[in-house]
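Training component of the fellowship. As part of building independent skills, the fellow (R.M.) carried out the full modelling exercise for a liganded target. The chosen ligand was magnesium ion. The inputs are recorded below so that the supervisory panel can assess the work.
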Amino acid sequence: MFLTHLSLKNYRNYESETIEFANNVNIILGENAQGKTNMMEAIYVLAMAKSHRTTNDKDLIRWDEDYAKIEGKAMKKMGRYRLNLLFQKKEKKRNATILNSSD
Ligand SMILES: Nc1ncnc2c1ncn2[C@@H]1O[C@H](COP(=O)(O)OP(=O)(O)OP(=O)(O)O)[C@@H](O)[C@H]1O
Ligand SMILES: [Mg+2]
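Fellow's submitted model of the complex:
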């Protein structure tokens, strides 16, 4: 599976960010505490529906916000998929959807 697109809303230190990945190697560069590890964590969370860094989903939500959203577009042999994950402070359960997509 190849992740072509990642969109973060209120995820850790990201207020709103969209990343389009290149076809080959992608290099994530940035100063300390800019959010490189957070971005990698978001990809893991999108794949596993849980973090490897915390057992508390609320840690993933940007401080002072009520929810965090991760959206991804992925390409597999069989086609394209849209992956969505929503974490809400007031909800214990995560909300996840995987949709077949034509774009
Ligand atoms: N829930 C949150 N809301 C807002 N900011 C957060 C949240 N969780 C973590 N942060 C912030 O994210 C930043 C750290 O991001 P991250 O660990 O991804 O940085 P990094 O680019 O990997 O840094 P380094 O080069 O030191 O590894 C810190 O400033 C931290 O305070
Ligand atoms: Mg780091």
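The panel noted the following from the submitted structure. The mean pLDDT is 93. Residues 2-101 form a domain with the Rossmann fold fold (CATH 3.40.50.300).
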